[in-house]
Amino acid sequence: MELTNEYIKNRIIEKFGDAASGFEEPYGMLSFEVPKELNLRMLQFLYDDPELRFQFLTDLQAIHYPDNPGRELAVVYHVHNMKDNVRLRFKVFASIETPDVFTATQLYACANWMERETYDFFGVNFVGHPNLKRILNVDEMDYFPLRKEYPLEEQTRLDKDDEMFGR
Amino acid sequence: MAEEVLQNTIEQNIKLPEGSIEKTTTTLNLGPTHPATHGVFQNILEVDGERVLSAEPTVGYIHRAFEKIAERRPLYQITPLTDRLNYCSAPINNLGWHMTCEKLLHIETPKRVDYLRVIIMELARITDHLICNSVIGVDAGALSVFLYVMQYRELVYEIYEEICGARLTTNIGRIGGFERNFSAAAWEKLERFLKDFPKALKEFEDLLQRNRIFIDRTVGAGPISAERALNYGFTGPNLRAAGVDYDVRVHTPYSSYQDFEFNIPVGTTGDVYDRWLVRNQEMWESLKIIRQAYEKIQQFKGKEAEVYHADVPEFYLPPKDKVYTTIEALIWHFKIIMGETNIPVGEVYHCVEGANGELGFYLISDGGRSPYRLHFRRPCFIYYQAYPELVKGAMLADAVIILSSLNLIAGEMDA
């Protein structure tokens, strides 16, 4: 039997009820969101279920939505069922004041560095992570650079002395 | 003895880490600028004699914040950033990025463009595997193979040069296709490559594949089981060497890979030797794909044989002579160069089979001129985490050869 997005969606609703919401299929990939407390249960369910078998964590990263009070940080999980070749993504939202999300390192060894990277750039605090420290930036850094409050420098600004650069 | 040394350090006011005199093992700093690491990788190894007890990799030495920069760039200006990820096979990154944009913008590329792209991507795969495999040879003590195959990488770089003008950081192609058709010189060089390279590859293979020294050095070095490899997020040749036949080109064909006949080589033990064999066999398969693509392209006749891009005036730069003579082309040219074209709202994940694994682009657009957020799934950043597990209990010399067999590219890892 083919594993369709519709079927996966029904299975998830059957298991999690209203907790899983916001189902969409942008560009064919099933996407939804769950409360941040349920992220591990969702990953575990997708991993263990004999039909769903989403046993490969493709990617894990965060997005910052500053205009989304209480839900500023979204952590996105991409999981992959290699046997049936189906991918899906789900998001959990956390507020920027308490960006605590449970770590997936117990289930996926590869989540370790992905979570460290997410922490490094967005400050998501992965509860239970064995070694949550900065990975690409210097240890002394005291802010989270991919958050939207740190815009890149305006390319057209005039208050800088650019004589040396020919601008 | 230990007390005496300890006393000396106290007298001379030298601060040593706690327990560093009493302990019987050695802490060894491998990298970040050691020639044997082939890139900026630092590993703090704990060794007992020559046996590695543990390793702690440090990454980020050449982090350049591409994901942040990409948030302020129009799509076409992000292509040069992708060059600098896996710089051993930059065209795969470039074309993977263009395909991501095309997916977001719902652009259908003509078949001929797909086949041209396949040729470029497979050439890039060959160059990448050549580097990696010959460097494994170097780390096992055979320098000549490395120098020998570089001639053929040079030939591939000349082909790139004919197509896009650049060699290493290629910035090849555009959204929708290529900036120009392949020139006669490019085809000629490709034919020469297809004629000469198989002989060289055979020789390269003969020098190492059944070489007693090479086998002794590589068999059983850094093995990993299929379960652990999947758990560690391995993709690409490293995963296939562990026995999982996962290849994006077959699982989720892009750029018309479904039109080609090729095999996916898999290994069994996931050790250095298997990784070497898988890459070696993949080069033969890539040659097969290039030949098929070449033949398919020869079959296009008349107007079809001139097609090298899709018709997307919003994103594909018009030819220069049109810009100077027609107003539409001038407007499009201006809008594209100034990055004034809005991109549709959307969320897209697209992946291609990079030379060292699944290279993914996760692009979120909120409808502005540049991505709201762009994330690169860099395969070697993810699987490098397994390194401490791979080298545990290995000899120090094996730690180096395992490092090079993973095909780690610092530029990609640090993004």
The helicity of chain B comes to: 40-55%
Please report the distance between the alpha carbons of the first and last residues of chain B: 47 Å
Number of strands of chain A: 7
CATH superfamily of chain A: NADH:ubiquinone oxidoreductase Nqo5 subunit
Q: Tell me the CATH topology of chain B.
A: Cytochrome-c3 Hydrogenase, chain B
Widest beta sheet: strand line-up of chain B: 1-2-3
The CATH architecture of chain B is: Orthogonal Bundle
- CA(first)-CA(last) distance of chain A: 62 Å
Q: SS-based structural class of chain A?
A: alpha/beta
Low-confidence stretches of chain A: none
Order of helices and strands of chain A: HEEHEEEEHE
> What is the number of beta strands of chain B?
6
Taking all residues together, what is the mean pLDDT of chain A? 88
Shape of chain A: elongated
Using only C-alpha atoms, the radius of gyration of chain A works out to 19 Å
Number of helices of chain A: 3
What is the quaternary state of this protein?
A: heterodimer
Strand content of chain B: 5-15%
Count of helical stretches of chain B: 18
Characterization of this structure:
The complex is a heterodimer of chains A (167) and B (415). By secondary structure, chain A is α/β, with parallel strands linked by helices. Chain A has helices at residues 5-16, 39-48, 111-122; strands spanning 21-24, 30-33, 56-64, 73-81, 86-94, 100-102, 125-127. In chain A, helix 3 links the parallel strand 6 and strand 7 (125-127). The longest helix of chain A is centred in the N-terminal third of the chain and has 12 residues, at 5-16. The model of chain A has no long low-confidence stretch (mean pLDDT 88). Chain B is mainly alpha-helical and 415 residues long. Chain B has a single domain (66-414), classed as Cytochrome-c3 Hydrogenase, chain B (Orthogonal Bundle). Chain B has helices spanning 2-11, 66-70, 75-83, 90-105, 111-139, 143-164, 184-208, 212-218, 226-231, 236-241, 248-251, 272-298, 320-325, 327-337, 379-383, 387-391, 396-405, 410-414; strands at residues 26-30, 42-48, 51-58, 346-354, 357-365, 373-377. The longest helix of chain B has 29 residues, at 111-139. In chain B, 49% of the residues are buried. The mean pLDDT of chain B is 90. At the A-B interface, strand 3 and helix 3 of A face helix 2, helix 9, strand 4, strand 5 and strand 6 of B.
